[in-house]
């Protein structure tokens, strides 16, 4: 039997200031002699294989102090078998809603707006939705399910009710696929003080200090010319799963006032991630992919200065990931991404810790609701159109061809109505359809922060696990009004789902959403809602697992019940 006390005494009697060198080797030999097959290195990731491979296990001081003696093992077993502990832990794990776990998987496969759109498209196709192309003629029929993408980063999907009647409404949930992040500059190559850095420009209103000291990589869309002689261009998605970038903070010894005056980085001077040391970059460390030659005419080279627009090492990493030659890379749109995956967390497994919750959580819930609301035959009784629209560029104002301020949704609705109503000679079909339609503008909401409770208006402080947040603003930063809020609450009420309300304090500015933009452009009734979250626009955000389930169920109820709810208020002028 292992005598832990004696073992510790023998260590204490042997003078040493470090756990390295001969002293540490001696301690390991003593440890192995006395522990035999019974030792467990609790701080080593390979402790399960310790019995077979203990010679290769990197023993640490913390491991010795936590050796599992028979007494400790018995105590651990009693604790684990305690009915109260067992019930608490099993209850917590069993209560993680499936929708929350599905969201985690969705986000982990959606590093960029391009990847989120591709993931959404795959799920739609698997559910029987037909892919359309905006450049082709469409053939739509009642009972059909369709989708299309624009620029690989915005997507619109819709299901036509089998009993569709010309002039009936379109019930839409709108969200966005983009999140604040650093994006690579067109000429990103920076060499400074013996390091290779990547030049970036900030996209959206990120909490940029949270990107420091994170394990980072790149993902996005690459324009390729595979087989240089062919001349044909293609677009492919790339996601480098391993950490290749980092933005290190300055040591406190060189910035003594950082804790009193705050960390205030200059995003132009301080946000460039380190790719490699210059010497390793010159050697092409660990990579075999060929790099562009100086005679290459594509944009991987900066024409004015005849030097690479991007570090050859970065191009080699991309080429290795894409299984192509580096000189086949013509151009790209890449984002800097945090490689840490989205997870379920909290002692009671009630939180989601993740990047890009704003706004992939809303996009996912809208997608899941559309798929499941139409999967039980309910389309057979539907007389309208159910739709989800996920836009890019919301974080920078939506004013683009792929944003909510562009024509993507108006173009889609126009084509749908023209095709489905091609045999109708009734006046004002489009205008009637718009006035019978309803838009749920879904974007994340600010939950009450326990350490900054004074940042919320006291009567409008949304909480986690308490329902979707209906957003109001007298200055029309949100599109909600009394009627649209009532209709949305009624959809929740019919499924027993809670809601809560939010207004910003009068002494604070208010953000906005796609809601006011689409409402004004289309003349469509709109409500602004969102899942409550903490740490919005941080590289790692946080929300509740129950809120994802509530959001998905609320959106499903909207698709299934809105036609009936709306018919009860036909006499209201709105």
From TrEMBL:
Polar residues bias: where?
Answer: 76-93
Return the EC number.
3.4.11.21
Signal peptide residues on this chain, from the entry's feature table: none
Q: What is this protein called?
A: aspartyl aminopeptidase
| Keywords on record | Aminopeptidase, Hydrolase, Metal-binding, Metalloprotease, Protease, Zinc
Q: Which family does it belong to?
A: Belongs to the peptidase M18 family.
CC cofactor: Zn(2+)
Asked if the keyword Hydrolase belongs to this entry, the reply reads: yes
Name the enzyme group at the top EC level. Answer: hydrolase
Region annotation (Disordered) ranges: 68-93
Q: Which GO terms describe its molecular function?
A: aminopeptidase activity; metallopeptidase activity; zinc ion binding
Which reaction(s) are listed as its catalytic activity? Release of an N-terminal aspartate or glutamate from a peptide, with a preference for aspartate
Q: Name one Pfam family in it.
A: Peptidase_M18
Q: Output the superkingdom of the source species.
A: Eukaryota
**GO-annotated cellular components:** cytoplasm
The answer to whether UniProt assigns keyword DNA-binding to this entry is no
Q: What are the BP-aspect GO terms?
A: proteolysis
């Amino acid at each position: 039997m292992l005598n832990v006390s004696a073992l510790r005494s023998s260590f204490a009697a042997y003078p040493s200031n470090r756990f390295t060198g001969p002293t540490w080797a001696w301690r390991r030999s003593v440890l192995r002699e006395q522990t035999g097959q019974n030792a467990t290195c609790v701080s080593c990731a390979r402790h399960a294989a310790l019995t077979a491979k203990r010679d290769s296990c990197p023993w640490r001081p913390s491991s010795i102090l936590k050796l599992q003696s028979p007494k400790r093992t018995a105590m651990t077993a009693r604790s684990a078998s305690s009915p109260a502990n067992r019930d608490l832990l099993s209850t917590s794990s069993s209560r993680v809603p499936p929708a929350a776990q599905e969201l985690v998987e969705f986000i982990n496969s959606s590093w960029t707006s391009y990847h989120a759109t591709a993931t959404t498209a795959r799920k739609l196709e698997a559910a029987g939705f037909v892919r359309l192309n905006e450049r082709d003629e469409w053939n739509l029929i009642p009972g059909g399910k369709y989708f299309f993408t624009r620029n690989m980063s915005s997507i619109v999907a819709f299901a036509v009710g089998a009993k569709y009647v010309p002039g009936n409404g379109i019930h839409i949930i709108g969200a966005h696929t983009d999140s604040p992040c650093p994006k690579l500059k067109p000429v990103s190559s920076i060499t400074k003080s013996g390091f290779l850095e990547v030049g970036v420009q900030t996209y959206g209103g990120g909490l940029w200090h949270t990107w420091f000291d994170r394990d980072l990589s790149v993902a996005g869309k690459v324009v390729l010319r595979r087989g240089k002689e062919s001349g044909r261009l293609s677009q492919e998605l790339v996601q480098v799963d391993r950490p290749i970038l980092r933005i290190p903070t300055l040591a406190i010894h060189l910035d003594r006032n950082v804790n009193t005056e705050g960390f205030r980085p200059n995003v132009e001077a301080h946000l460039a991630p380190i790719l490699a040391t210059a010497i390793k970059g010159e050697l092409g460390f660990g990579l075999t992919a060929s790099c562009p030659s100086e005679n290459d005419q594509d944009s991987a080279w900066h024409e004015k200065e005849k030097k690479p627009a991007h570090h050859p090492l970065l191009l080699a990493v991309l080429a290795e990931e894409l299984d192509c030659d580096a000189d086949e890379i013509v151009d790209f749109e890449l984002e800097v991404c945090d490689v840490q995956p989205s997870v379920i967390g909290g002692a009671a497994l009630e939180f989601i810790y993740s990047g890009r919750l704003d706004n992939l959580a809303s996009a996912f819930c809208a997608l899941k609701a559309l798929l499941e609301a139409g999967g039980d035959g309910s389309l057979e009784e539907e007389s309208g159109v159910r739709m989800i629209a996920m836009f890019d560029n919301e974080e920078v104002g939506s004013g683009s061809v792929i944003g909510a301020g562009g024509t993507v949704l108006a173009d889609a609705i126009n084509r749908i109505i023209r095709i489905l109503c091609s045999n109708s000679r009734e006046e004002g079909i489009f205008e009637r359809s718009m006035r019978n339609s309803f838009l749920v503008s879904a974007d994340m909401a600010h939950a009450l922060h326990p350490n900054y409770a004074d940042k919320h208006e006291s009567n409008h402080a949304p909480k986690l696990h308490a329902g979707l947040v209906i957003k109001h603003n007298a200055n029309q930063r949100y599109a909600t009004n009394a009627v649209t809020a009532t209709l949305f609450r009624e959809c929740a009420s019919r499924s027993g789902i809670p809601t809560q309300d939010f207004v910003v304090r009068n002494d604070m500015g208010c953000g906005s959403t796609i809601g006011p933009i689409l409402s004004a452009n289309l003349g469509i009734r709109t409500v602004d809602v969102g899942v409550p979250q903490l740490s919005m626009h941080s590289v790692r955000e946080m929300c509740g697992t129950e809120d994802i389930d509530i959001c998905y169920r609320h959106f499903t109820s909207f698709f299934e019940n809105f036609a009936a709810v709306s018919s009860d208020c036909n006499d209201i002028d709105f």
